[in-house]
Amino acid sequence: MRLCVNIDHFATLREARGGLEPDPVTAAQICELHGAEGIVCHLREDRRHINDRDLRLLRDLVKTKLDLEMAITDEILQIAIETLPDLVTLVPEKRKELTTESGLDVRGDAEKVAHAIRLLHDNDIEVSLFVDPVDEQIEAAAEAGADIIELHTGEFANARSEEEMLEQLARIRSAAAYARTLDLGVNAGHGINYVNVRHITAIPEIEELSIGHALVARAMFVGLPRAVEEMLRLVRGF
Ligand code: PXP
Description:
With 238 residues, the protein is of the alpha/beta class.
């Protein structure tokens, strides 16, 4: 299983003062130096954290794999095509949300999603769809032509009891197995931390994790190199 680090929160902190620090691009380089296998950033329509300059520099400097999270809008699709990330992860986006709140409604927006995937594929960009662990959405993702799904682990991470956590975990496990039967690659992300990650790494179909908040929060206390290395050990199981 691979660890990709979402660096949006470094940009969130920078934007809190409207200055230059901390620079998310430097953060990406430190993550890579310490073993991260990919860098994730979300270019939002409102540019509340990552901005166009960050994305340009990240494209130049990231040597592992650059995963651009984005909503399906004409403007951001155009930027993706100009930037050529290694992977685009399509997500729903609401202006008022603190973070992405749910998976895409691939079934409901089938035509729009399929069109975006075709456009990205025409430019040789792999496409992942962020979806809830629901068979109907996974089927729709395969029909739309996605290469990969990223399973939304937020409900699992936010479970308020052991019973609810196990229920959500079972949904993720079964969704991951189902996606593989449809030849989709399987990633996972949202709310994964140093404690709950062990449940996700036990699911063999999941190839890659996208982790931001918990890792950046830990980095404040132990430093970014150690935060990355500690998570890598958990993800790799040694
Ligand atoms: N995957 C997606 C699609 C996301 O939107 C986010 C949050 O930016 C993450 C993964 C990472 O979630 P977290 O910051 O909770 O680790």
